[in-house]
Amino acid sequence: MSVTPEFDPTAVIRIRDLRTQFGANVIHDGLDLDVARGEVMGIVGGSGTGKSVLLRTILGLNAPAAGQIEIFDQEVTGATDEERRAVQRRVGVLFQDGALFSSLTVAQNIEVPLAEHTSLSPELRSEIADVKINLVGLPLDAANKYPSELSGGMRKRAGLARALALDPEILFLDEPTAGLDPIGAARFDELIGELRDALGLTVVMITHDLDSLNAICDRIAVLLDKRIRVGTMQNLMADDHPWLQDYFHGPRARAAMAAPNQAEQG
Amino acid sequence: MDGAHAAWHGAVSIEEQNGTMTALADDTFSEADFTTASTEDGWMLRLDGAWITQQISAVDGKLRALELPSQGNAIIEIGDVSGLDTAGAWLIHRTELALLARDVAVECRTAAPAYARLLTTVRANDAHCPEPPEPTNAFVAMTERVGKATVDAAVEARDLINFLGHSVIVLGDSIVRPGRIRFTSLVHHIEQAGLNALPIVGLISFLIGIVLAFQGAEQLTKFGAEIFTVNIVAQGVLREMGVLLTAIILAGRSGSAFTAQIGTMKVREEVDAMRTIGLDPMQILVLPRLWALVICLPLLTFYANLMGLLGGAIMATVVLDMTFFQFVRQLSGAVTLWTFWIGLIKAPVFGFIIGLVGCYEGMRVSGSAESVGRMTTRAVVEAIFLVIVLDAMFSILFAILGV
User: Fold this and answer.
1) Are B316 and B323 in contact (CB under 8 A)?
2) What is the rounded average pLDDT for all residues in chain B?
3) Distance (Å) from the C-alpha of residue A21 to the closest C-alpha of chain B?
4) Same domain flag for B175 and B120
5) What is the CATH number of the domain that holds B25?
6) Which residues of A touch B367 (CB under 8 A)?
7) What percent of chain A is modeled with pLDDT above 70?
């Protein structure tokens, strides 16, 4: 068993001894993770190591076999509906392809959480949706378009706008730059960094994009052997675990490191 | 306490945090509010409470109704606010814009750098999105829909006939060169569409036989002609009911499955992959399915006829005190071999049509998973419609031929 990390009172997400399994297939076993307020945490791992499962488990979409998950000191598993809604109001999620509701326009999509969780007037909801559309850098005429009329990158931005609708404190991103061209991906990274600074977000992002990790992640959580190893990029690069060696010292990683660190510029 | 409130909220910068912070529910925030005053610096709007999404619904209306000064200076004092997010910042900025529109100079006062930064962000992102287009007049919209549906129907009919031609060529080709038929695939579809349909086809035909016999007996007993119940069951099942019910079940069971299977392959670009490898989707996907239904439907119809007659026979012996032997003797007088053939001749044609529509709608799927569902529904409706239309045409044909 691993040594339980020290209790961090400022952690907004606290996972202890998490175990998830599907049938006999154990995905995570004895997994611990703390995410501190205001940091950008990248989650990486090989295919099939359960990155998305971890995200779904944190969000309460997937029941863990054992262990505790706390968001804002609120136990997620076994929470009442009321407690769960209180947490949901403070959390935003961007799914891989945006997961926009296909029967609603972009503006209507952004208004869904506002209509569900607040008693704001329709005019104000629409004005807030406009601000969010601006904030994520969508063109203004995208507001009245349906998700099927948008490109992949625009769908992600629209999904991000919806995730930001309630001004969440924690933002979960599932592969935000996957499927974007390098320019679009770099812009998206910049956007996340800007929003983090402007809105004081805590960001948890699953990514395979070494450029993203390098550019905006404060710390990186690596899924290894059903557990998580957390560290800054420098820490993890010095680690002698073979997978980490391959990951951070492969040809793609070297190219990403060679690029100027964009986080400093943002 | 206010400091602790402000500290957890997302709008506040990281540096301002301290270790005492605990998670607070939204309702621990006080509702946003404001007061106005005239000071020597100008008109002052003093904000109070938490200006966050959950707490601003009341203040929104009050701000809209607020009478703003038409000249001089205005100050928006944000210092007492216990929380701010983009929605609250937008309200402040909206007021700011309204004042600027009246040529009033506005100054926002805040001590918290995080609030100032948030306001700057919102100010930079205040462009209005265009209004959603007005819904058109209901009558115009309806006319437009009718016109569109008519054109769509015509285009679809043309495409279906096109597909029919293509299928007939492929089918004819496979008769000349049977080696082209994928045997494994064919057997698989015969099992799926034929063998696995036996229970449901048998049960429904059996029940229809019972219903026909019971209703016939009810009416014919009034004339003392109850023996002709057997004729009703025999003619009804053999000529129409057996083949029609089997065709409808197969349209719902297999036609829809064909559309869903081929449609899913279209969505996942498997069909395009086939083409690039040099495989013809018509040969690989459509041909075995068409043959499977052309072979299965007559066999299933034969089985359905037997089950229907059996149901009729059992009902007749129960209701009419008829022996099974009497039923069979009456049956042999009631039908000719043609009665049986008339039902069976239609079967392969119906099977072909069901398979054709199922595959055609499957090939028309494009883009999203949503269209798979839409096309599947459409395939079932169209297949049943065409089967019944064809059945009516067969009836006319047989009437002219006098059989």
Assistant:
1) no
2) 87
3) 29
4) no
5) 3.30.750.24
6) 148
7) 93
Could you report how far apart the first and last alpha carbons of chain A are, in Å? 40
Residues B53, A169: C-beta atoms closer than 8 Å: no
- In angstroms, the separation between the Cα of residue A229 and the nearest Cα of chain B is 24
CB atoms A199 and B126 under 8 Å: no
- C-beta of residue B18 within 8 angstroms of C-beta of residue B5: no
| Residue linked to tokens 């409706």 | B381
Distances (CA, A) of A98 to A43, A101, A137, B99, B129: 19, 9, 15, 38, 20
Last residue of a domain, one of B94, B124, B154: B124
- Asked, for residue B139, whether it belongs to a domain, the answer is no
In angstroms, the CA A243 to CA A44 distance is 11
How far is residue A88's CA from residue A117's CA, in Å, rounded to a whole number? 9
Q: Are residues B179 and B46 in the same domain?
A: no
Per DSSP (E only), the strands in A37-78 are: 40-44, 66-71, 74-75
Give this complex's ipTM: 0.78
Domain assignment present for residue B372? The answer is yes
Copy the structure tokens of residue B57: 């619904």
* Contact residues, chain B, for A201 at CB < 8 Å: 10
Per-residue pLDDT, B166: 93
**On the CB side of A111, how many CA atoms lie within 13 Å of its CA?**
20
Out of B10, B57, B370, closest to residue A200 by CB:
B10
Using a CB–CB cutoff of 8 Å, tell me whether A231 touches chain B: no
Q: Which token pair is B60?
A: 């929104």
- The shares of helix, strand and coil residues in chain B, as percent rounded to the nearest 5, are 75, 10, 20
Question: Tens of pLDDT along A56-92?
Answer: 888 888 888 888 888 888 888 778 888 888 888 888 8
Q: Residues B114, B248: one domain?
A: no
Task: Give the domain ranges of chain A.
Answer: 101-167
Q: Which of B124, B151, B186 is the last residue of a domain?
A: B124
Nearest to B129 among A38, A90, A107 (CB): A107
Domain that holds residue B268: 167-401
- Min distance A148 CA to chain B CA atoms (Å): 9
User: Which strands make up the sheet holding A74-75, listed edge to edge?
Assistant: A25-36, A11-22, A66-71, A74-75
SS3 B67: coil
The crossing angle, in degrees rounded to 10, of helices A242-249 and A251-258 is 50
Answer yes or no: is B314 within a domain. Answer: yes
Cβ contact, residue pair A120, B57, below 8 Å: yes
Q: Which of A181, A190, A178 is nearest to A96 (CA)?
A: A178
Round to whole Å and give the CA distance between B301 and B316.
Answer: 22
Entry pTM: 0.73
Q: Do A140 and B127 touch (CB under 8 A)?
A: yes
Indicate if the alpha-carbon torsion angle A97, A52, A175, A118 is positive or negative: positive
Q: Would you state the structure tokens that stand for residue A90, as one six-digit string?
A: 């403070």
Task: Select from A52, A49, A64, A48 the least CA-distant residue to A15.
Answer: A64
DSSP A104: S
Q: Label residue B49 exposed, middle or buried (CB < 10 Å: 0-12, 13-18, 19+).
A: buried
Q: State the greatest distance between any 2 C-alpha atoms of chain A, in Å, as a whole number.
A: 57
- Say how many domains are in chain B: 2
